[in-house]
Amino acid sequence: MTSEQSGTILSLSSVTPTITGAEIAAELQPPRQFETASFESYRPDAAYPTQAGAVESLRAFAGAWGVAGAARQPFFSRRKKAVAKPGVYLDGGFGVGKTHLLAALWHVAPGRKYFGTFIEYTALVGALGYAAAVESLKGATLICIDEFELDDPGDTMMMTRLLSELVASGTRIAATSNTPPNSLGEGRFAAADFLREIQALSAHFETIRIDGVDYRQRDSSGHALSTDAAGLDSEVARLVAAGRAVTVDAFGSLIAHLASVHPSRYIKMIRGVDAIALSDVYELTSQTDALRFVAFIDRVYDAQIPVLASGLPLDEVFAADMLGGGYRKKYLRARSRLIALTAEQ
């Protein structure tokens, strides 16, 4: 899809893109909403001192490159006078600004650098093969991994091995993962889970804790917006008349189509799209379908594409047993993002 197609109605269910390893590598940079992210533009919540503390810690980490504005003291400990660890892990709930800070760090890093989600890096390995992926990333100043996932032991071991090779060659690593905000159980043990799962690589990481509440819901009602069929048609017509490229799909059709497209290709499904309209939204009962939808929404959120919907509000599509299961963090993150996306018309 290209900008020439603006002012038209399209269908995501008819798009089956391909993607190469080179294209995946070219996409490894911060999402659109973080193109200008900086330490200065981050707004820490005064109620949570760890947010301001995280900024100072990352400034110190960046100080190893001699960037302007870096902290003068050695990273993390003046008393030890030790060389800074080559990795940092931002530990906190979704919506507390971890991705903003990760992007800010990426922007100040010199030289060749990469920024992507865990799934994008595993897709790169899948497209190029392990050895070629290592060669393509080797020599980078910084590798940023947003939303490091621990669900698949095989992928976790592969990423641990890849990052170990990159660290050995001089590359620095920064990573985040998601935990529910204000959750004393899951939130406090997220760092321990991360460090345990990456095993041998864990000694290279320093943990930076970021507490807080989801900024996307601080000034909102906390619910995704939904309309009826007539309202959806009217809004689509308004956007098309304004020259926008809008996709219109039945929710069930999109869910079925996502099963035929690898998640690494979702980014190309939505390229050139200005708004997404989904009709007849319903509750998902299949865990597999739900996880694919989460991966799709992650890409939509990165691209900051507003979503219109009729039927069930999109933040209610995940069944209660899913929200209480092992993938709870992913579903809560997706709900938060769906609330934000339906509010941006």
UniProtKB/TrEMBL annotation:
<keyword id="KW-0132">Cell division</keyword>
<dbReference type="InterPro" id="IPR027417">
    <property type="entry name" value="P-loop_NTPase"/>
</dbReference>
<dbReference type="GO" id="GO:0005737">
    <property type="term" value="C:cytoplasm"/>
</dbReference>
<keyword id="KW-0131">Cell cycle</keyword>
<dbReference type="GO" id="GO:0016887">
    <property type="term" value="F:ATP hydrolysis activity"/>
</dbReference>
<dbReference type="Pfam" id="PF03969">
    <property type="entry name" value="AFG1_ATPase"/>
</dbReference>
<protein>
    <submittedName>
        <fullName>Cell division protein ZapE</fullName>
    </submittedName>
</protein>
<keyword id="KW-0067">ATP-binding</keyword>
<keyword id="KW-0547">Nucleotide-binding</keyword>
<dbReference type="GO" id="GO:0005524">
    <property type="term" value="F:ATP binding"/>
</dbReference>
<dbReference type="InterPro" id="IPR005654">
    <property type="entry name" value="ATPase_AFG1-like"/>
</dbReference>
<dbReference type="GO" id="GO:0051301">
    <property type="term" value="P:cell division"/>
</dbReference>
